[in-house]
Each structure stands twice: as structure tokens, then as C-alpha cells.
Amino acid sequence: MKLPITYQLNPNGPAASTYYPAIAEFTNQVLERAENSIFSIAREYRQYIIEYELEDPRTNEEYVYELLNFGLLWRTYSHTANSIRFAPFRILAALAEWRKKHQHLKPAIDILRGLMMSCFLVPGKPKRMERPPLNLYEVERLVVWLDATGDFREDALRYIRWLGYWGIQTNRQFSRTMERVLAFSDWFEDTSLVRLGGYTPHVDKFISENADQYRWREDRFACLRSRSEYHLNMVGAEILNRAFRSEFLNAEHKTVLVPGCMRLRSAQKCEGTKTADGVRCTGCEAKCHVHQLRQLGIKQHFDVCVMPHSTDLSRWA
To answer: CA-to-CA distance for 148 and 105, rounded, in angstroms?
Structure first.
């Protein structure tokens, strides 16, 4: 029996004429809502970044997305992160890096990480965190936990800088900031379910029916994302597309990164060439969507690279 896919961008017709206009419209709504909610926090943080020269400053909209992302991460994972009394966080983070650098050790490392993550990072049943952070220490514990999972490494690196910014705030300012961020993320969760829920109809069912199967797997966090996280990624992709559009159009070399599940054949039967940057298609299956995209890339002058695991994206980041 073929299981229904968890999400799809074309339930009502071609994505080009249905999904993309819809996500653009909803993203506009999110940013308009942010203007009266958390946009001022993003602006102040951008000035902080410029003043202390912490990175090349990005757009205010990108920092709004980071705040929204933090709100959802706090609601979803902070109860687990703050309930842990001991865990080999550094070892788990190091293993996540080793699996990318030493491909021949990846299968063994994945088994080890799966066991350690289930024992140390998710010791009990996950619960939603209903309250905001009481202090900066609780946020730090979440950031350390995110880094240890491997799947949230880039998020953790971003929030290390935010910790510096929040660290110079008074307790009252910090509490007020967290209240505004979480109120905005709560609005997003409710509204995105209405506006984007049609694209993620089977996510909850997939999680409920398959959670036990992923308990000891190292990709449990990547495969068991909530509908809100899917919706956040959709809006995030739209925001980043807008931010990078000019640079993308002017880039001399372009590469399309696609997930491993896009391949027609299994990972074991795929004849793609493994490289440091990912798997390069060799055209072993004419009906494979990766091969078809590669053929389009030859005409439109872009490369195609398969990312077997979400953590492999950090090579490109």
C-alpha cells in the first residue's frame, strides 16, 4: 500500500500558478504583521551587528525570519532542552561534523548518533513549552541542544549572536522581547495552518504513525518536523529568495541542491557520483526527476547536486 506523501506544493494545480503566488501573498502578510510586532527588534539587532562588526549585515526581513524561527524552536524544543541534566553535547556536535568529513565512517557514526541522541537529547516524551524564557541561561541551553542535534547547527550558530544582543538587555527588556517574539510566532502557527495547511495535510498522521520507528535514528528531527515548521520553511524560503535574488541573477555559477528523496532509485541503487559537495547525477535512470532536472540544467546553465542529508547543506552554507 502506497502511503500518502506528507506534503505537496501542487494539490490544486501546477505550483508555478498556485503555490508560489500563494506563498508570496502570505509572506507579505507575515512581514506586514511583523511591522507592528517584531520588526523594531530586527532593526535594533541589525544595528548591533553593524556596530560590533559580527557579520555582513543582512536584510531586516531575514532577521525577522530568525526571530520567528526562534519562537517556533522555543515552543517545540526548549522543554526538552531545559529538562536535560547531563548530555555529551560536544561529542554529539563533533560527531555531526565528522559524518560530513568522513563519508566512509558515516554509517557507523549515524548509528552511534541515533542511539546517543535518543538516550541523551530526548530522554522523555517531547512537550510544548507554553511559557517564555525566564532568563538568558534557558536560551543558552536551547542553543547548545540545537547544536548537538546536528540538524539545527546553522540555527545554533545564528542564535549565538542573538545571545550576545539579548545579553546587553535589562531583564525587563529581555522579558518584553521574548513576549513579543512568542506572540508573533503563535500568531504565525495559527494563521499558517489556515493559509498553508492545504500543502501539509498528512504531516500529523505521518508523525503519529511513524514516531516510534524514528526513535533510534539520527534523522529523527529532520523527518518528524511539525506542520508549523514546514510552513515556516516555506515562508523562510520566500524571504531568502527575495533577499538573494539580485546576487543570484548576477552569479556566474549556479547549482540547484535537491534532497536525496527526489531520486527515483534508492540511495543504494543510485549510480550518482559521491563528491565532497554531494551526489552528482550520472543519468542512470531516465525517469528520475534528478536526471530530468540535470538535463534542464544543461540547457539553462546550472548544475544539480543531491543532498542525501539536511546536515550536508552546511558545506554550502
So the answer is: 19
pLDDT at 312: 67
C-alpha 89/C-alpha 120 separation (Å) is 9
Query: Identity (one letter) of the amino acid at 213?
Result: Q
> What are the backbone angles phi and psi of residue 306, rounded to the nearest 5°?
-90, 130
Q: What is the mean pLDDT of residues 151-159?
A: 95
- Distance, CA of 206 to CA of 232 (rounded, Å): 18
Q: Is residue 227 a contact partner of residue 200, using CB atoms and an 8 Å limit?
A: yes
Q: What is the C-alpha to C-alpha distance for residues 228 and 214, in angstroms, rounded to an integer?
A: 20
- Indicate the DSSP class of residue 267: T
- The rounded distance, in Å, linking the Cα atoms of 195 and 191 is 6
> What is the distance, to the nearest Å, from the Cα of residue 73 to the centroid of all Cα atoms in its chain?
10
**Of the candidates 244, 260, 243, 264, which has an alpha carbon nearest to the alpha carbon of residue 304?**
260
In whole angstroms, give the CA distance from residue 46 to residue 54.
10
Measuring CA to CA, how many Å separate 8 from each of 2, 158, 197?
15, 29, 10
Count CA atoms within 13 Å of residue 307 on its CB side.
14
Continuous segment of H or E residues that includes residue 87: none
Q: Which residue, 6, 3, 1, 4, is CA-closest to 222?
A: 6
Distance CA 153, CA 132 (A): 22
The pLDDT of residue 261 is 84
pLDDT of residue 1: 47
Backbone phi, psi, residue 180, to 5°: -70, -40
Compute the distance between CA of residue 294 and CA of residue 283 in angstroms, rounded to an integer.
8
**Residue carrying C-alpha cell 530522554:** 123
Give residue-wise pLDDT tens across range 206-257: 999 999 999 899 989 988 999 999 999 999 999 999 999 999 899 999 999 9
